[in-house]
Structure formats: C-alpha cells, structure tokens
Amino acid sequence: MFRSPLPVVLWCVTGVLVSLGQECGRPPVLENRIVGGMDSSEGAWPWQVDVQTETAGHVCGGSIISENWVLSAAHCFPNPSDVSRYIIYAGRHQLNGFNPHQTVHRVRQVVIPSGYVEPHQGQDVALVQLSSPVTWSDYIRPVCLPSSDTLFPAGMPCYVTGWGNIRNDVPLQGIGTLQEVQVPIISRHSCQDMYLVNPSEQVDILYDMICAGYQEGAKDSCQGDSGGPLVCQMVNGTWVQAGVVSFGLGCAEANKPGVYARLTSFSGFIRDTSPGIRLYGGANANCCGHTALVVSVLATALVLLWR
Questions:
Q1: Given phi > 0 = left and psi -120 to 50 = alpha, else beta, which region is 22?
Q2: Which of 124, 208, 220, 225 is catalytic?
Q3: In which residue ranges of the chain is pLDDT below 70?
Q4: Which of 36, 298, 270 shows the shortest CA–CA distance to 145?
Q5: Is 75 a catalytic site residue?
Q6: Which helix (H) or strand (E) holds 193?
Q7: What confidence score (pLDDT) does residue 285 get?
Q8: Smallest Cα–Cα separation from 185: which of 202, 209, 201, 166?
Q9: Cys-Cys link to 47, which of 63, 114, 175, 249 (CB 3.0-4.6 A)?
Q10: Cα–Cα dist 226/229, whole Å
Q11: Residue of 63, 226, 246, 274 marked catalytic
Q12: Structure pTM?
C-alpha cells in the first residue's frame, strides 16, 4: 500500500521539533531595556528566561532549548559547581511586575566548556540543566539552535532581548518589561576593524564570537543582558539563536558593537551535553532535502504507473 509522502514533506518544511513534539523557534500568534530598544509584547519571545540568585536578584538572561535545558553564558556562573543559589524564571515578561504565566525552576547542574577562562578569551556559553522540566505553553517554548554550517551573513537583521541596563549603569525602570532591539550581524573582519579604532582598548574577535549592532552605536545589549539570546528569523519563519550575549566595551558606543558567543562553534558541545537536542539545518536540513527529492521522484513514478 502506498503511503502519502505529505507528512514527511510537512515535517521538513515546518521546522525542527524538540522533545515531546514541541516545535522550536515558533512563537505563538498572540494579541498583542537593552539600549535603544522597546518593550516587547507578552509571549513574543517565549524562550527567554530570567536568571536570578537569592541574594542579587536578576543577574543574567538565558534561553530555553528543551524542557530540561537552558542556554546562557559561562560568565553568569562564576562557580558552576555551586548551583544552589540560582533560580530560573520561565514565561516571565516583567522583571518587577505580575507574571501570571511564569514558572520557577531550580538548577540541577551547569556545564561550561573546559577551556573557558573569561569572556574575552571565548568559550562563553553555559548549559543549565533544570531540576524540574518546563511545561510548554503559549508563553514557554524553545528556541532553535543552529548546526555548525548554519549561516548568519553580515547584515542579517536579528533581535536581542533582555532585562539589562538601558544605558551604562542605568537599570531598567518601573515594572521592567522585557526589552527587545533589532541589530544586524556584523562580519568578524568588520567587527575587528571597529575595535581597532582605539588601540588602547584591544579586543580580539575570536572564531567562536559573532558581532551584532551598529558602527555608530545607539542600539546594543548592556549589563544584565548577559547570557540572553541573539535570534534571527530564517526564510521559513523559524527563529534560530545565533549567539549568546557575552561582552562589549560600554553599551551602544560607536565602533564597539556587542560581542556574542557564536553558537555554530558549539554544536558539538551542545550535542555531547544534551544528546536529545536537535539542531536546525545541517544534517537535518540535508536529510529533509534528500527525502523531499526522493518522495517527489517516487510520487511521479507512481502517478505514471497508475495512468
């Protein structure tokens, strides 16, 4: 009996699925500070999490990548073996207001790359395993992660989100609504040239870093946004995380764009740490492409046979 190829083709074109069938990188259609940003709509970035400690409150951001794992920055966890003081809030929209859709989670473990020393030397990512899994909803969903060969070309418009400072040493005010700002990807070469404008502030843009922002400044991530996601929308509408907020010199200053951990450099680390994570693109995309081609050929042959 011939089985319709439609389910296979639909799986290929609608995005990558994670555990329990939850589609990644697809915010629901809901009704409707980062420097130079604006308030986000509730539920617009359902993978965003708030990383807090019992003593300091908000310290970093992060992103949900599966029901049990959050992605953040290594420098947000200076002592990764001591996780008792961390609290992760999922589904949160307001830092200081009422959040009816949020859930609260403790941390089971934090895994960082073995070569990490400090942000300027790269490797600034952390995989945070939750003590209790998140429950998927319109306000809590995972972001897609890229395979090693996913491309984020210079000029590609992306978004960074967080509850960090709105200017140097100026915290987000009032109820603290999650901020969003659009920033274009900057090539590694161009980013390095910008940071060379002032030789006294030497910054090396390493292979595992990606830059985003504007040469003139004005829009950028800032202190408190660390660990949060830099996400880009692919041609099929899926949001894929290109980077993790890592560091910068000041906030939104000219010739000092934001520097992020480049996630295409960490696909192996992510797969080894959390084998259940499926990456967007790469083998998955190739598999879908080959499958769609084979299905098309078989369907055509069967149509000819049935005539």
A1: beta
A2: 124
A3: 1-21, 29-38, 165-172, 217-224, 249-252, 282-307
A4: 270
A5: yes
A6: helix 188-195
A7: 41
A8: 209
A9: 63
A10: 9
A11: 226
A12: 0.83
